[in-house]
């Protein structure tokens, strides 16, 4: 038994698309029609359509379980015979566009977060400095009184509370977004292959949008 080129092990089935190296982590999806992979309510052209939420969650979840340096590949088991020859290339382009947009969106979010972090840090440092100075002033004015020390410590605590948000951003919040963008880059670059498993009518592909050939323009007489 032999699989398709590139080390893809799809035994006894016809497949088409990108060669999948044998050392790839294969994300395997089984659908009856290609259109099940995409959001039916999205009116965008096919190459710009969003993935169906369940398909997206499944693919991303599988990719997260792989090691960070593993090459990813998508193998779609499709319950119908092959349609147009360009079907796999169209699917690969749609997958690439979707995850490229996700990666860019994550990077925009990261830039906004870091901008917020810098602004919050500047505000926090000013508030901390003012509260420390005010606390020292009150402690000096109320020298020898317990109230002076209480006010000084309260203002010091308030100053550090003002630093909580920038510290949270720069210590914890930025790197998960960066990792998400890197994962989307890997998903956008992965090879995509279709394994045809169905024995339906050879015309079944005509009802599986978006594989339908574009309508020919009418000639005006």
Distinct helical segment count:
4
**Strand order across the biggest sheet?**
1-4-3-2
Question: What's the Cα radius of gyration?
Answer: 28 Å
Helix proportion = 40-55%
Structural class by SSE content: alpha/beta
Q: H/E element string?
A: EEHEHHHE
Uncertain segments? 1-9, 211-221
Beta-strand fraction estimate: 5-15%
Query: Which sheet architecture does the biggest sheet show?
Result: 4 strands, mixed
Query: How many distinct folded domains?
Result: 1
The gross shape turns out to be rod-shaped
Strand tally is 4
End-to-end Cα distance, whole Å, is 56 Å
- How would you state the average pLDDT, rounded? 84
Task: Tell me briefly what this model is.
This protein is α/β, with parallel strands linked by helices and 221 residues long.
């Amino acid at each position: 038994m032999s699989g398709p080129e590139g080390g893809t092990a799809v035994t006894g089935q016809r497949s088409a698309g990108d060669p999948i190296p044998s050392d790839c982590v294969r994300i395997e999806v089984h659908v009856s029609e290609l259109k099940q992979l995409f959001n039916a309510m999205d009116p965008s052209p096919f190459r710009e359509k969003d993935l169906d939420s369940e398909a997206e969650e499944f693919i991303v979840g599988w990719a997260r379980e792989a090691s960070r340096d593993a090459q990813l590949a998508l193998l779609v088991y499709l319950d119908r015979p092959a349609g147009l020859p360009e079907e796999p290339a169209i699917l690969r382009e749609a997958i690439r566009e979707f995850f490229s947009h996700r990666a860019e969106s994550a990077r925009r979010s990261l830039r906004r977060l870091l901008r917020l972090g810098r602004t919050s840090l500047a505000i926090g440092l000013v508030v901390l400095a003012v509260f420390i100075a005010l606390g020292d002033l009150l402690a000096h004015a109320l020298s020898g009184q317990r109230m002076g020390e209480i006010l000084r410590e309260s203002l010091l605590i308030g100053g550090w509370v003002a630093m909580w948000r920038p510290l949270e951003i720069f210590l914890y919040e930025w790197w998960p977004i960066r990792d998400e963008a890197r994962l989307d880059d890997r998903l956008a670059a992965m090879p995509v292959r279709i394994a045809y498993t169905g024995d339906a009518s050879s015309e079944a592909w005509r009802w599986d949008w978006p594989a339908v050939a574009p309508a020919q323009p009418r000639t005006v007489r």
